[in-house]
Design a protein that fits this description.
Layout (H helix, E strand, L loop, with lengths): L8 H24 L18 E2 L6 E2 L2 E2 L3 E2 L9 E6 L4 H17 L2 E7 L3 H11 L5 E5 L3 H6 L6 E5 L5 E6 L4 H21 L1
Parallel strand pairs: 5-6, 6-7
Antiparallel strand pairs: 1-4, 2-3, 5-8, 8-9
């Protein structure tokens, strides 16, 4: 029987080195990526056929605020759909920009409360304000799958024909509001007026 040669230290360290290099590439990719550039198969297609039941107990001016459906997004007016949750810190961070979006864009803003507790969602609206024309719920997360939601917050711009024309992943910021969302909305409004 031949003596087995002992492995060299370099050969023993090779798997660790390969793992470290691969992990380094993944870490760089995660840090350098812009989450708002994640692709959406919905862009250019009709919004999924969904119904979002109203957030129970949420009132505006003493009246129950309605939920909405995809049919509400195809009534000839550009609209924005925003997935949010009370437990989502980036949703808290973006909320002032949603209030600003409502003021500056002059579009209907539809909120989808995602996998949240009803009382927590109502408290969120009471504390931070309600920019939405309607607030629906997606308590199971099923509609989020149809919409291709990666996580909250996510925002969709929908043209007057009910087609998704833009998707913003992550919280809206002053920069993204000014350079991405408002220009997309204004272009969609101009396109609708021209047709």
């Amino acid at each position: 029987m031949a003596d087995a040669k002992p492995k060299s230290p370099l050969l023993r360290a090779l798997p660790v080195v390969i793992f470290a290099v691969v992990a380094g590439f993944f870490a760089m990719a995660l840090r350098s990526g812009d989450p708002s550039r994640l692709p959406s198969t919905l862009v250019g297609k009709p919004a999924p056929q969904t119904t979002f039941p109203a957030l129970a107990g949420l009132e505006v001016g003493g009246q129950p605020q309605p939920g909405f459906s995809s049919a509400d997004l195809a009534k000839g007016k550009v609209s924005v759909v925003n997935y949010w949750a009370s437990w989502c810190q980036p949703c808290v961070d973006e909320h002032p920009f949603l209030m600003q979006l409502k003021e500056q864009a002059g579009v209907d803003l539809y909120g989808v409360n995602y996998k949240d507790k009803t009382d927590a969602a109502r408290r969120f609206m009471g504390r931070f304000g309600n920019p939405y024309s309607a607030v629906g719920t997606d308590s199971s997360g099923r509609a989020a799958i149809d919409w291709g939601v990666y996580g909250t917050p996510e925002t969709f711009v929908v043209n007057g024909r009910g087609e998704v024309i833009y998707k913003h992943v992550g919280p809206i910021s002053a920069e993204s509001l000014k350079t991405k969302l408002l220009p997309v909305i204004e272009k969609a409004k101009a396109d609708a007026a021209a047709s």
